[in-house]
């Protein structure tokens, strides 16, 4: 496991990349995906699932990366958010931040941009579904998402444990 970047008095500099083509997004997404999701819950998507979702016309990806240095053409992938819009509603399909970049506000930047993009597009409601014991509930609640449903034993972890799925939504109008 990589050690976190050294703590400094200021947060690391990130840049948001919006509107990436599927073929350009897949590599960085998979790099973050492999690090970000605890394998015991089975929540990470595989390459084929991710590629298939990215190929759909209403799927949108935001990528957050470190600012490239003079020696690099692009920065290191930090996190991503993937949404899918249908009519005037949008679903947050995945949001992930690589463990070494957590606690620097990366998820807040990504979710804030998801909300801004949705509002600009006239989306009336944003939905998400997550494992009910996922600590990300704090982030979603901070942004104003409210629980609207529960699916008992929806997820099955690699240890055969079952986890409830919590559905949350936020009105954007």
From TrEMBL:
SUPFAM superfamilies on file: Acyl-CoA N-acyltransferases (Nat)
Pfam families per record: Acetyltransf_1
GO MF terms, alphabetically ordered: acyltransferase activity, transferring groups other than amino-acyl groups
Key words of the record: Acyltransferase, Transferase
N-acetyltransferase domain location: 17-173
Keyword Acyltransferase belongs to the record: yes
Classification via InterPro entries: Acyl_CoA_acyltransferase, GNAT_dom, YpeA/RimI_acetyltransf
Name listed for the protein in its UniProt record: Ribosomal-protein-alanine N-acetyltransferase
Source organism per UniProt: Blastomonas natatoria
């Amino acid at each position: 496991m990589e050690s976190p970047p050294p703590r400094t008095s200021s947060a690391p500099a990130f840049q948001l990349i919006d509107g990436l083509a599927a073929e350009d997004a897949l590599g960085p997404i998979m790099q973050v995906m492999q690090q970000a999701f605890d394998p015991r819950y089975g929540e990470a998507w595989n390459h084929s699932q991710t590629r298939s979702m990215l190929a759909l016309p209403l799927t949108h990806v935001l990528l957050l990366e470190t600012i490239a240095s003079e020696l690099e053409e692009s920065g290191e992938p930090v996190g991503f958010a993937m949404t899918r819009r249908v009519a005037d509603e949008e679903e947050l399909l995945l949001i992930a931040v690589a463990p070494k970049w957590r606690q620097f506000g990366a998820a807040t930047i990504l979710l804030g941009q998801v909300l801004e993009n949705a509002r600009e597009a006239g989306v009336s409601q944003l939905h998400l579904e997550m494992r009910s014991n996922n600590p990300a509930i704090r982030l979603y609640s901070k942004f104003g998402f409210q629980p609207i449903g529960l699916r008992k034993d929806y997820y099955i972890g690699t240890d055969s444990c079952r986890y409830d799925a919590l559905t949350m939504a936020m009105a954007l109008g």
